[in-house]
Amino acid sequence: MAKIKHHNFLNTVHEVFTDAKAAGVLHLYAGGESFSGRTITVDGRELYHFGTTGYLGLEQDNRLKKAAMEAIQKYGTQFPLSKSYISNPLYEELEEHIQKMYDNPIVITKNSTLGHIGVIPSAVNDDDVIVLDHQVHWSVQNAAKMLKTRSVPIEMIRHNNLDMLEEKIKKYRDSKRYIWYMADGIYSMYGDYAPIQNLMDLGKQYPQLRLYFDDVHGMSWTGKHGTGYVLDQLGELLENVLLFGTLSKTFGASGAVLACSNPGLYEKIKTFGGPLTFSAQLEPASVAAAMASAKIHLSPEIYDLQSDLGERINYFNSCLGQTTLPLIDKNASPVFYIGTGMPKTGYNFVNRLMREGYYVNLGIFPAVPVKNTGVRITISRHNQKPEIKGLVEAMAHHFPKALEETRTNKERVFHAFKLDYRLNDGESRSSKLNISIEDSIDQVDQKEWDCYMGGQGVYDWKGLKLLETVFKGQKGQEHNWSFRYVIIRDKQGAPILMTFLNLALWKDDMLADAQVSANIEEERKIDPYHLCSKVLSMGCLFTEGDHCYWDGDHILAQESLDCLLELMEGMEHPLGSKMTVLRDFPKDTPWNTTLYGHGFLRVRMPNSCTVNLEGVPSMTDYIGQLSSRNRRHYRKDIQLFLNRSFCKVLSQVDGVLLSQFKVLLGAVQSRNMGLNTFSFPESLFDCMNESPLWEFIVLTPEVDSEKVLGVMFCYTNLDQVYVPAFVGMDYENLEDYATYRQLLYRTIERAIERGIPKIDFGMTATFEKRKLGALVHKKYAYLQTGDNYILELLGVMEGQH
Question: Keywords for this entry (predicted)?
Answer without folding.
Answer: Aminotransferase, Transferase
